[in-house]
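Cast an eye over this sequence plus tokens and explain the fold to me:
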Amino acid sequence: MGRKQAFELILMTFEHFEKKFLAEVEDMEAMDPAYADRYFDKLDQFCRMIRYGIEQR
């Protein structure tokens, strides 16, 4: 995968998570800290897949 394609994949991933966040969180002040933890954990998992590749277990 070339650098341009890799960058596009990263942008698409962040776009997806941004849309998901905006759809699920109506009030930033009332956001559940547990939701934020789960959200950022899942985002981190996706970023690690992009960085290290998808492994079969």
Summary: The chain has a mean pLDDT of 87.
